Amino acid sequence: MSRHLPFEDWIFADEALPENDLRELQRHLRDCAECRSIDQRWQAARQSLREAGMQTPAPGFTTRWKAMATRRLKTPGPAQAWIFLAATGLGSLVMAALLAVQTSAEGFSLTGVFSRSSTAVAGTLRDWANASNALGMVFRIVSRSIPPAWYLIAVFFLSVLGILGLLWFVRKTREGKK
Which of 8, 95, 105, 177 is the most exposed place for a label (fewest CB within 10 A)? Predict the structure, then answer.
């Protein structure tokens, strides 16, 4: 523990110190050049602040400040960009997971991804009637109802949307700094 610790705190204290602490601080300042220097500089800084007085803002300050605040409110912040990126990324992951469920249920082939038979609706109705497991039923319905190409299109769309959103965010941020 530093031998200066309570004394440094006492030097910067705003409230008046109890008489015992004040005597101890003065004794330490006589013996310690480092703390004495800190105390002298702090007292000089406080005196400068008292002498400086209150400054009045330049004409038009309020108008400029309000304009700057309005501009900042219109400029998206980093949190908005992260939320947007997380939402589009999560959407892409969900679409990719659904595509994986569908292709694993029926076996994967590239031609099967882009072409579906016309019996999908009939198969969906058959699965609905014969399903014994609710989760299995949902997976079978999803796998037969939605063509796999739609998942790929959705993942692509969400990815493009995420990139465009980030580009927009960068542009708006740069505009806000001007």
Answer: 177
DSSP three-state, residue 86: helix
Would you say 29 and 39 are in contact if contact means Cβ atoms under 8 Å apart?
Answer: yes
Instruction: For residue 4, report the phi and psi dihedrals to the nearest 5 degrees.
Output: -100, -5
Tokens describing residue 78: 């980093």
The reported pLDDT for the residue numbered 139 is 66
Enter the pTM of the model.
0.33
In this structure, what DSSP letter does residue 147 have? -
Domains of the chain, by residue range, sit at: 5-52, 72-177
Give the ranges where 13-77 is alpha helix by DSSP (H): 19-31, 33-52, 61-74
Per-residue pLDDT tens for 14-52? 888 899 988 988 999 899 999 999 999 999 988 888 888
